[in-house]
Task: inverse folding
C-alpha cells in the first residue's frame, strides 16, 4: 500500500480552490493507496514518510518563491517528488520560454526586463507585461502604446519587489480562438480544454482576474499536438515527468504558439473531464511504485 501525499496550499479561512483534490484523494484510496492532501508548508509534515509526493495545487508558491524552492529541494532529497525538483526549479521561472524558443519550439515572442534594465516598451502594437514568477494572471496586464505611463508604473512596482518582467506582444487571435490547454499525464495526452481571453483592456495589473474564463473541452489539432510534443521533448532533465500542461495561443499567422509550459502545479480540470480520473489515478499509483 503506497503512501502518497498530494501537496496543496493552505486556503486559510476560505474554501480551497482545488475542487479536484478531494476527488483524486478518494480515487487513490479506493485504488488501494494510503493517500492524503497536505499543505506544502505544514511544519508537521513528515515528507520522508511518503513513497511519493505529488505537487498538486501549491497555488500560493509564486508569492513565496524562495521558500517554495527550498521546500522542493528538501522534499526531493528525502522521497520521490513529482514533478522532480530539477524540473520544478527550471519551470518556476518563465525565462525557460527563451530556452524553448532557442530549441526551436514556436513560442510567443518574449523579452525580459530585470530590475535596473531599460523598459524598451513597444510603440507600435498592443503588449502584455507579467512577471517571470507568477500564477493565475498575477501582476499581468495588457497595454496599448498610449498606456505607456501605466505600464511603467507596473514595471516599477514589480522591480521594487525584485521581480523580472516579461514583455510579449498581445496576440489578437486569442480574442477569437482563445487559449488551449493540452494536459499530459503519465506520458500521454490526458485531455484538452479551451478558455477565453484572460486580460481585458484597461484591467489594472493588480486587479484579481478570472484565470480560466469560459472553459470548455477541446479537441486539439495536429498542429497543436506537434507544438506540445516539441515543447515537452525540449524540457531538460525530463525523465520522471509525471504531468505537464501545454498552454497554446495562435500567432498572427494562425499557427499555434507556446504561451506557457506548466510543470509545477497545473490545474487538471478534472471537474470538466471526469473521464480522465481513472488514468490520473493509475499514473500516480505507478509513479509511487504501487499497482497501476
Result:
Amino acid at each position: 500500500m503506497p503512501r502518497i501525499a498530494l501537496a496543496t496550499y493552505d486556503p486559510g479561512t476560505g474554501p480551497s480552490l482545488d475542487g479536484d483534490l478531494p476527488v483524486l484523494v478518494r480515487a487513490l484510496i479506493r485504488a488501494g493507496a494510503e493517500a492524503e492532501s497536505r499543505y506544502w508548508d505544514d511544519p508537521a509534515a513528515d515528507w520522508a514518510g511518503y513513497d511519493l509526493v505529488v505537487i498538486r495545487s501549491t497555488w500560493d508558491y509564486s508569492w513565496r518563491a524562495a521558500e517554495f524552492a527550498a521546500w522542493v529541494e528538501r522534499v526531493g532529497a528525502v522521497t520521490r517528488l513529482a514533478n522532480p525538483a530539477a524540473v520544478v526549479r527550471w519551470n518556476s521561472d518563465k525565462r525557460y520560454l527563451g530556452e524553448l524558443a532557442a530549441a526551436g519550439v514556436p513560442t510567443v515572442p518574449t523579452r525580459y526586463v530585470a530590475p535596473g534594465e531599460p523598459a524598451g516598451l513597444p510603440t507600435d502594437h498592443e503588449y502584455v507585461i507579467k512577471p517571470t514568477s507568477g500564477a493565475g494572471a498575477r501582476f499581468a496586464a495588457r497595454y496599448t502604446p498610449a498606456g505607456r505611463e501605466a505600464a511603467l508604473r507596473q514595471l516599477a512596482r514589480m522591480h521594487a519587489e525584485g521581480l523580472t518582467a516579461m514583455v510579449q506582444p498581445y496576440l489578437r487571435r486569442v480574442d477569437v480562438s482563445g487559449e488551449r490547454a493540452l494536459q499530459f499525464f503519465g506520458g500521454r495526452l490526458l485531455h484538452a480544454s479551451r478558455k477565453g481571453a484572460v486580460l481585458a483592456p484597461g484591467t489594472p495589473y493588480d486587479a484579481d482576474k478570472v484565470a480560466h474564463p469560459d472553459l470548455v473541452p477541446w479537441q486539439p489539432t495536429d498542429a497543436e499536438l506537434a507544438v506540445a510534443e516539441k515543447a515537452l521533448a525540449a524540457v531538460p532533465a525530463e525523465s520522471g515527468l509525471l504531468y505537464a500542461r501545454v498552454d497554446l495561443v495562435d500567432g498572427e499567422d494562425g499557427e499555434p504558439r507556446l504561451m506557457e509550459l506548466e510543470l509545477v502545479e497545473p490545474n487538471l480540470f478534472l471537474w470538466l473531464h471526469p473521464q480522465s480520473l481513472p488514468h490520473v489515478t493509475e499514473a500516480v499509483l505507478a509513479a509511487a511504485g504501487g499497482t497501476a
Residues 65-78 form the longest helix (14 residues). The chain has a mean pLDDT of 92. The chain is about 25% helix and 25% strand. The two ends are 12 Å apart (CA to CA).
